[in-house]
Amino acid sequence: KVCEMCEEYDDLRQKLDAKAEHIWGVNMRHGGERLEHVEFVVRFGPGEEYIQRRLEREKRCGTVERIDDTHCRFSADVYDTSEMVPWIRTFICRITQLNFTDRTLENSFKADIDEMYRLYGIERSDGQ
């Protein structure tokens, strides 16, 4: 339905464009006023450099840093880290370190992994 012209369109568009660099999906938790940080390190073996290439390709608004021959660090400041969880899960067996500013979400993520290990009878490689 065609309505009246929005007088604030240019101002609203400018605000959206300024926030776009920190939007992972469609949500802006906290009204887009506060950023959340997420960071994780993934491990890969010889011949698995495609892991780093995948991170680079799929990073959206994040950054990827090569730490050494077998580890990369992904980090991002976004409005809602919970939108990233399904993507981060795809690296579960490779994640060696994980940090969210939203500790509740981080603890929930780690609890889900622990439960998966328990269900499948898998012993964690970090000795737990």
What do you see in this structure?
With 128 residues, the chain is of the alpha+beta class. Helices cover 34% and strands 22% of the residues. The chain has four helices and four strands, in the order H-E-H-E-E-H-E-H. Strands 2-3-1-4 form a four-stranded antiparallel beta sheet. Strand 2 and strand 3 (71-78) form a beta hairpin. The longest helix is centred in the last third of the chain and has 18 residues, at 103-120. The radius of gyration is 18 Å and the shape is elongated. The chain starts with 8 loop residues before the first helix and ends in an 8-residue tail after the last helix. 12% of the residues are buried. The mean pLDDT is 90.
**Based on helices, strands and strand pairing, what is the structural class?**
alpha+beta
Please state the overall shape, judged from the principal axes of the Cα atoms. elongated
Give the strand tally. Answer: 4
> Approximately how much helix is present in the residues?
25-40%
Intertermini distance: 58 Å
**Beta-strand residue percentage:** 15-25%
Average pLDDT, rounded to a whole number, is 90
Could you describe the largest sheet, including whether it forms a barrel? 4 strands, antiparallel
| pLDDT < 50 stretches | none
Oligomer: single chain
Give, in spatial order, the strands making up the sheet with the most strands.
Answer: 2-3-1-4
**Tally of separate helices:** 4
Order of helices and strands: HEHEEHEH
Over the alpha carbons, how many angstroms does the gyration radius reach?
Answer: 18 Å
